[in-house]
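User: I'm curious whether this sequence folds into something compact or stays loose and floppy. Could you predict its structure so I can see for myself?
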Amino acid sequence: MEKTQIRKKSNFSRIKENYGLYIMLLPAMTLILLFAYRPMYGIIMAFQDYRTGPILQAPWADPWYRHFERFLTAPSFHNIMRNTIVISVYNLVAGFPFPIIVAVTLNHIRHRKFKRFYQTVSYLPHFISTVVMVALILIWLNPESGLWGHLWRLVMRSDDIAPNMMGQPRLFSHIYVWTEVWQRTGWNSIIFFAALAGVDPTLYEAATVDGASRWQKIRHIDLPMIMPTASILLILTAGGIMNLGFEKVFLMQNNLNLSASEVISTYIWRVGLAGAIPQFSFSTAVNLFNTAINFVLLISVNAIAKKLGNATLW
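Assistant: Here's the prediction. I'll summarize afterward.
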C-alpha cells in the first residue's frame, strides 16, 4: 500500500482560515508595536551625546561605550547594584511562596462565605495606589503620632519618642518587601487558585478513600498541579528582577535612608533626568545595562528550568 502524504498547510492558508481570530488580535498587536517596539529605536541614545533635537542627528559618543564606562566606574555603582539586587531578591524569595500558600489554603476551605470573605479581604490591598500605600506606611510608622509610636510608648511605658524606622537604612528593605507582600499576595494568588480549580475532584475523592491526610493531598495533588504555572511565573519574575519599582522606592526615600534605598531606577532619575541639564544618553545607557542583565537572567533561568524538566517559556 502506498503511503498517503499529508500536505502541510502554509502559514497564509492558516491565517486565511482563522482570519477572525487574527482580526481580534490586531488591536493588541497594534498597541504593542506602537508603544513597546516603536520607541526602541531610542536605544541608540545610549551610544550618542544626545542633547536636543532629532535623535538620529545627534553626535556619536567617543568612544561608543563612554556612558556605560561612566556608570560602571561611578563611586556609587557598587552600592546601587547591591541595593537593587538585595531588595529584588529579597522581594522574590519572600513574596513568591505566599500566593501559593494562600491559593492552597483557599482550595481546602469548604465554607463558601468565609472563602469569599477571605478572598475579598486579601484582594483589596492590590487596588491601593502606590502613593496612598506609601502614605499609609509613613502614617503607621510615624514615631510620634503613628501606630508604631503608640505601640512603642505602650510597651516601653515611656513618653519618649519611638525610633524613626524610616530613617534607618538597615530597615528599608524589610519595610519595602513586607508591605509589598501584604499588598500583592492576595491578587497574585488568583492565577494559582485558577490552576487548582481545574483539578479533577475524583483525585481528592480517591485520595480520601486511600486514607490520605490533608497534607498528603496538598503534596501529591495540589503542588504538582500548580508547578507548571509556578515555573512560568518564576521565570518571568526572574527576568524582571532588576526592574524594581521606581515610584514606591522613590516615595519612601529620605536623606537618612538613601544609602540603602538608592536603586538603579531612582539613580537614573536623580543623575540622568533631575539635574539642571538632563543627561538623556547617560540615563538611556544605564537603563539599557539594566535591561541586558534582565535578559541574561531570563535566558538563564529558563535554561535551568528546562534542564530540571519544568515548564518553560520556550
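Summary: The first helix runs from residue 11 to 17. The chain has a mean pLDDT of 88.
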